[in-house]
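Hi F.,

I've been meaning to write this up properly since the lab meeting, where we talked about keeping a consistent format for the predictions we share between groups. The idea is simple: the sequence comes first, exactly as it goes in, then the structure tokens exactly as they come out, then a line or two of notes. No screenshots and no reformatting. I'm using this chain as the first example so we have something concrete to point to.
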Amino acid sequence: MYERESDATPMGERDGGRLGTRDARSDGRAETEDKQADGRAETEDERADGRAETEDERADRRWQELIQEIRVAQTGVQILLGFLLTVVFTPHFQGLEQTDKTIYIVTVVLGALATGALIGPVSFHRIVSGRRIKAQAVVWASRLTFAGIVLLLATLTSALFLILRVATHDAYVPWLVCGVLVWYLLCWFVLPLWVRTRYTSGD
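Output, unedited:
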């Protein structure tokens, strides 16, 4: 009688083969579970940072936020500049002192510069659109917006000084304007920077 091939295989080798297969399967499952655990850990870390988003999604979000901010600033500077441009055509303008006329010219120029800086991000986005550099575009648009806000601050301060000088020539006018300027600085820069330093570690 011939022995079957399966019977000719030693028992220990058969058992060892099955055990090896089981160990390989166990190692494979363990490796897969480790990878899944690492993936969950990375996801949790991203969520802990605030948002789980790609670089493109981050750029899109920051651009939308920037556009909303620009709309608010643009409204203020456009109304102010429109008012300033009409002053020169009024009869009372010719009766102003030369100092007041100089302040007016400086104010109009500052308002025009602020308008240009705040509208700049729109044309910037149109020109670079489709070039796959939105992240860089957002950075430069943010810088233009910040420059526009600084110029808007200067425009408001100069316009307030001009109006108060024309309305009254009292000596307290410069002090009043300085007080308003300090309030602007607190609301626009000091408070946001303090909150950013105290409560956040980055965007």
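Notes:
The chain has six helices and no strands.
Residues 1-8, 39-48 have pLDDT under 50 and may be disordered.

If this format works for you, I'll send the rest the same way.

G.
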